[in-house]
Amino acid sequence: MRNKGAEFVWFDGKFVKWEDATIPVMAHSLHYGTAVFEGIRAYGTENNLFIFRLEDHMKRLHRSASIYCLELRNNVKELCDATLRLAQKIVMKRSCYIRPLTFVGLHGIDLNITKESPTHTVIIIFPFERYFNEEGIRACISSWRRIHDNSSPPLAKAAGNYLNSVLATQECKRNGYDESIMLDIHGNVSEASGENIFLVKNNKISTPSIASSTLEGITRETAMTIAHRSGYNIVERPITRTELYMADELFLTGTAAEIVGITHLDGKPICDGKEGPITKKIREMYAQIVCGRVGEYMEWLTPVW
Ligand SMILES: Cc1ncc(COP(=O)(O)O)c(C=O)c1O
Fold first, then answer.
1. Would you give the distance in Å from CA 101 to the centre of its chain?
2. CA distances (Å), 260 to each of 14, 218, 236, 249, in order?
3. Which of 75, 291, 296, 305 is the most exposed, fewest CB within 10 Å of its CB?
């Protein structure tokens, strides 16, 4: 969303016109990446606009903030209510992306962020549709390693972490791929620049554990729940690069990407180079769930209207 996405944003408890929601050039977060954020999707259907796992995202925002001692002045319920009220205020009825962001404001060049440092929270909503091609994507292994827990905690969805993703994305796009998979510092598979990764081999599903420097994705957990309830065994374990080339299926999960198969890795087809049956099953189930068409998953949805 490079242009105006809606009439209003929510800024520190108030609705502010999109063009008036600006920050000073000395905002600390602009210089040092001291911000945490979330990416949430809402799905417009003939019945309603459904926000997917709103509370879980706001809880993660709080956890990310706490790692960096960023004071988040609104509790999870207040943030969820603010999101709902903003969607209603801008009369959002179509599928959209929701971006809550908590950032450090004017704090000079002092790196000692404490609970007393000035923070601001903004919630932005804009229309959003598909991110990747549904039929599957071509990925590569990045030459950039995923950030490690001993330097920049991957479990925190912090703005500064995304410089690592930017480098990996630039490299993959330069080389004509859709997405990059990063290895962790030990050389095991970690995750993509903005998604978690799953591997299917002999009907068994594996995904790197959080010890492989992954973000604990909410779509990852959703896919694991769908797979588990569909009778598949899912293992969280270290995964090697070669296992990816030898997989029957590979797929990515993420709020923006949703669930998408990797059909080729480093130019080599994965199995027959088409979306695999287990990926398809989970992807299709996910698409039904987010639109409120599966009763047992309705608790994950917040209707706006
Ligand atoms: C680095 C990274 N990994 C994984 C994910 C997937 O997380 P989620 O499913 O919560 O969107 C994201 C997206 O937010 C991400 O940026």
1. 13
2. 37, 15, 19, 11
3. 296
Kindly state if the Cβ of 254 falls inside 6 Å of ligand 1: yes
Report the pLDDT averaged over residues 226-237: 96
Q: What distance in angstroms lies between residue 223's CA and the mean position of ligand 1's atoms? A: 13
Ligand 1 pocket mutation, candidates 166, 196, 282, criterion most atoms within 8 A of CB:
196
Q: What pLDDT is attached to residue 1?
A: 67
Token reading at 35:
């911000």
Predicted model pTM: 0.97
- Give the tokens for residue 115: 């609970």
Task: Give per-residue pLDDT as tens, 92-114.
Answer: 999 999 999 999 999 999 999 99
Burial bucket for residue 3 (CB in 10 Å: 0-12, 13-18, 19+): exposed
Mean pLDDT of 77-81: 98
- Ligand 1 atom 15, closest CA: 194
Separation of 108 CA from ligand 1 center, angstroms?
31
What is the predicted pLDDT for the residue at 22? 96
**Span from the CA of 235 to the centroid of ligand 1 (angstroms):** 19
- The two structure tokens encoding residue 253: 């999960």
Residue nearest to atom 6 of ligand 1 (CA): 254
